[in-house]
Amino acid sequence: MTNDTGPTSAPSTAPATPHYGVYFRIWGVLLVITLLMVLTHNPAILLPGMAAKATLIALWFMHLKDERKDFIFYIASSIVILSLILFALMVPDGKAM
Fold first, then answer.
1. Contact 40, 47 (CB under 8 A)
2. Non-local CB neighbours of 27 within 8 Å, separated by 6+ positions
3. How remote is the C-alpha of 34 from its chain's centroid?
4. Comparing C-alpha atoms, which of 12, 26, 13, 11 is closest to residue 65?
5. Given this model, what pLDDT does residue 14 score?
6. What are the CB-based long-range contacts (under 8 Å, 24+) for 20-28?
7. Could you give the CA distance from residue 87 to residue 8 in angstroms, rounded to a whole number?
């Protein structure tokens, strides 16, 4: 039997290539933030620097930017609550020194 619909061809859309430039830019931003944190030793730069680095890593390298918004909210709120608990547990140890 022959197929009367004609030859079938593959779809003309090529698979999306990864944009490595974005990853190199994120890596550069992470490097700059790390250098600022290491060279300044200023708590006003350390805490926002850590938060910014964690956010960039979670969004881009863990691909959370493509997830549903409520899932990101649950993850972010869990991280904040855990951070507060850990901070509350470390403060008494720091005062004892």
1. no
2. none
3. 15
4. 26
5. 53
6. 22/60, 23/60, 23/61, 26/56, 26/60, 26/61
7. 63
Strand, helix or coil for residue 47: helix
For residues 57 and 30, the answer to whether their CB atoms sit within 8 Å is yes
Q: Kindly report whether the global pTM for this prediction surpasses the value 0.70.
A: no
DSSP state of 59: I
- Give me the count of residues in the chain: 97
Q: How confident is the model at residue 17 (pLDDT cuts 50, 70, 90)?
A: low
Amino acid at 90: M
pLDDT digits (tens, 9 = 90+) for 18-49: 678 888 999 999 999 999 999 998 878 888 88
- Token couple for 22: 């974005």
Q: Structure tokens of 55?
A: 């956010």
